[in-house]
TrEMBL record:
UniProt keyword terms in alphabetical order: Membrane, Transmembrane, Transmembrane helix
Name under which the protein is recorded: DUF4112 domain-containing protein
Keyword Transmembrane: yes
InterPro entries the UniProt entry points to: DUF4112 (IPR025187)
Record PANTHER family: MEMBRANE PROTEINS, PH DOMAIN PROTEIN
Lineage start: Bacteria, Pseudomonadati, Pseudomonadota, Alphaproteobacteria, Hyphomonadales
């Protein structure tokens, strides 16, 4: 059942992927990269947080194909992020949560326009 309020998804995606800016650059990062630095559990914790976005996408009525794509984005982020050193750099660059939030917004925008009632048509 669509809730119509996605602000929680957007806030979480921003917090996890783009909340902070490296001074003097345009490079943005979030808690996903920072939490991912914790050996052993960091990527599991950040992956778990990212699952909330996918859960909310299901609540918003996202298609199975979109959910699968979002799971893939998060899985790649979580598994590759778990590789020592290289994975930590990957965590800062690959922004799965922001991608998933954007994919959901695009999906909802497409479906809203498909289901919009034409203006001026209807019964009087």
């Amino acid at each position: 059942m669509p809730t119509g309020n996605r602000s929680d998804i957007d806030r979480l995606a921003k917090l996890l992927d783009t909340q902070f800016k490296l001074p003097g650059t345009n490079f943005r990062f979030g808690l996903d990269g920072i939490i991912g630095l914790i050996p052993g559990i960091g990527d599991t914790v950040s992956g778990g947080l990212g699952l909330y976005i996918i859960h909310r996408a299901r609540q918003e009525g996202a298609s199975g194909g979109l959910i699968a794509r979002m799971i893939w984005n998060l899985l790649v982020d979580t598994l590759l992020g778990a590789i020592p050193l290289v994975g930590d750099l990957f965590d800062f660059a690959h922004k799965a949560n922001a991608k998933n939030a954007r994919l959901l917004q695009e999906y909802l925008d497409r479906h809203a326009s498909e289901h919009a009632k034409p203006v001026g048509r209807g019964t009087a």
